[in-house]
Amino acid sequence: MPKELLIQVAPEIASNEEMLKVHVSKLLHVSVSEIQHLTILKRSIDARQRAIKINLKLLVFYQGDEVQLDKITLPEYKDVSNAAEVIVVGAGPAGLFAALQLVELGLRPIVIERGKDVRGRRRDLKAINRDHIVDEDSNYCFGEGGAGTYSDGKLYTRSKKRGDVDRILRLLVAFGATPDILVEAHPHIGTNKLPQIIQDIREKIIEHGGKVLFETRVSDILIKNNEVQGIVTQHNDVIEAKKIILATGHSARDIFELLDRKKVLIEAKPFALGVRAEHPQSLIDSIQYSCDFRGEFLPPAPYSIVKQVNGRGMYSFCMCPGGVIAPCATSPGEVVTNGWSPSKRDQATANSGIVVELKLEDFKPFAKFGALAGMEFQKAIEQKAWHLAGETQKVPAQRLVDFTQSKVSATIPKTSYVPGTTSVELGQVFPGFLTQIMREGFVQFGKSMRGYYTNDAILHAPESRTSSPVRIPRDHETLEHLQIKGLYPCGEGAGYAGGIISAAIDGEKCAIKCAESLK
């Protein structure tokens, strides 16, 4: 009978199946030949001691046991060509998984995506990086797969209350992700692998009768007697439906403005804002693994750090080992940063958003904008950064220690941010209270992670799109908007998710509630 086993082993043993079998046989006091197969159920790194260990949860199959391999297959999707239609606005994780769930439940999704398909986006990303041209509908945030396609592909969520995380991971594996994401403590797909997975999801939706419209932007939501009737596109085409899942992402400012103009209830929401810090990956490795060289059996080290400074949380966000910093503006006249890693995480630099939690009271200077006050606060910082860096997609940058000492950096080395940098005293980018918190916080970071506080680290400003500055309120049970029947605010843009997994789960939940209301 298979035996479940929890063990700690050296990295070189964890990476070699034969060595692992030998190790397990000694622990169980059996010969190696008696062990037929090992299945790794969970894997994590324990770097708390100088001798780093790998934690493994194993299923050991002895000779004679029936080896049960986990077969991952897609659900039985129905042909929904003639089924009741539901409009899904946005083809990010929330929208795509909502559409898949609708197909599974026998409803026909009509996915409306303002940007291009996942391949077509690449030309526009090149234009941002090389020519400093921002396409408002096709960029790192907008287009098939949403911001998740080109922002690392992290699949870790701290919240286990949101829904079935394992179901989403298994669906991703069925669509081509490596099965390792079911095993790793902090699973990650990689920006280079996500596009094909996203494309395969879209093709599955279409294959079973769903519809996906690219380069189609919602210009109006039709509402009658507080009930949705459909949407109007930028070409004045009308698409009718009694159900709309609104999964636009955290950067769809025009949708927030549309809802505000139509007097549809929305609320300002706190979010976090700061900088993106880049260190040499070798430095982060030496800090986290307490060694001069991490070797071939350990992955590039991540880090996670949280401090309380003047009553505010300051913390790392979307940390990308072996990754790069990308330009994520969604309109001309602004600068925005984000980070991502390829699947191998093999770049020479590590970067992370380092952000400070904001409060609603911080948005008082923008009170005249009502529910959009936080969005305008965010926008003002992004526009100021654009002006200070030379009115291109170059980013304001400063060496870390120089920032804490209010000194303009004499030189900025080449960083992974392709459009380039401009040496700026970053205190000019942010409000005074935010600058002071970050200056104090970085000094504290250096006390916790010795070596982190260095002028070899370059700060890029701003990291401002951590989450939506707006919440679109919905009923706790039905998930419908509090005022508008048939409107389902969904995912990050509505304020109900924070990453690929939680957005996908929320998309599925909204689709299920949609289906229930149509019975």
How would you describe this structure to a colleague?
The structure is a single chain. The protein has helices spanning 11-14, 17-28, 93-104, 121-131, 146-149, 165-174, 194-207, 253-261, 281-289, 373-388, 400-404, 432-448, 491-494, 500-518, and strands at residues 3-9, 35-46, 53-62, 85-89, 108-112, 211-213, 218-224, 227-233, 238-240, 244-246, 267-268, 272-280, 306-309, 312-320, 324-327, 337-340, 349-357, 395-399, 421-423, 458-463, 470-471, 487-489. It has 519 residues and is α+β, with helices and mostly antiparallel strands. The chain has three domains: 3-62, Alpha-Beta Plaits; 85-267 and 469-518, 3-Layer(bba) Sandwich (FAD/NAD(P)-binding domain), CATH 3.50.50.60; 272-463, no CATH class. The strands form six sheets. A seven-stranded mixed β-sheet has the order 13-14-17-12-20-18-19. The longest helix has 19 residues, at 500-518. The chain is globular, with a radius of gyration of 24 Å. InterPro entries: FAD-bd, FAD-binding_protein, FAD-depend_C, FAD/NAD-bd_sf, MnmG_N. GO terms for molecular function: FAD binding.
